[in-house]
Amino acid sequence: MTGYSIKENVNNINVPHLHFGMQLIFDESQVDSPNEIWIDVYQIIEFLKKNRSEVYMANEETKDYKRKFDFVEESLLTN
Predict the structure, then answer these.
(1) C-alpha distances in angstroms, 23 versus 38, 67, 77?
(2) Burial letters for 40-63: b for 16+ Cβ neighbours within 10 Å, e otherwise?
(3) pLDDT of 26-63, one tens digit each?
(4) Number of other residues whose CB lies within 10 A of the CB of residue 12
(5) Residue 71 gets which letter from DSSP?
(6) What are residue 21's phi and psi, to 5 degrees?
(7) For residues 41 and 49, is the Cβ–Cβ distance under 8 A?
(8) In whole angstroms, what separates CA 69 from the centre of its chain?
C-alpha cells in the first residue's frame, strides 16, 4: 500500500498498487519546498504503452540493446 497516512485505506484503495511521479529538481532548494515541480506522467505512459517494441542486442561487445520498431507519434501522421 502507498500513501503518507499511518491509517490504512484512507482513500478507499484497499489493493496493493504502485504510485509514482516525476519531479524536476534544478537545484537543492526545490526539494520539499513550495518550488517543487512535478510532472503528470500519464501522457508519457500512454505514449510508451502505444509504442511497445521488442528489443534485440545491437552490440554483443557493449551489450547495447535497440528497439525493433521505431516510435510512432500518431498526431504527427498525415492521412
Answers:
(1) 4, 27, 31
(2) eeeeeeeeeeeeeeeeeeeeeeee
(3) 888 878 888 788 888 988 888 888 888 899 999 999 99
(4) 5
(5) -
(6) -150, 175
(7) no
(8) 20
What domain count does the chain have?
Answer: 1
What letter would DSSP give residue 30?
G
- Among 48, 3, 40, 44, smallest CA distance to 24 is for 40
Of the candidates 46, 52, 45, which has an alpha carbon nearest to the alpha carbon of residue 70?
52
pTM passes above 0.85: no
Domain that holds residue 54: 22-28+37-76
State how far the Cα of 23 lies from the Cα of 65, in Å rounded to an integer: 27
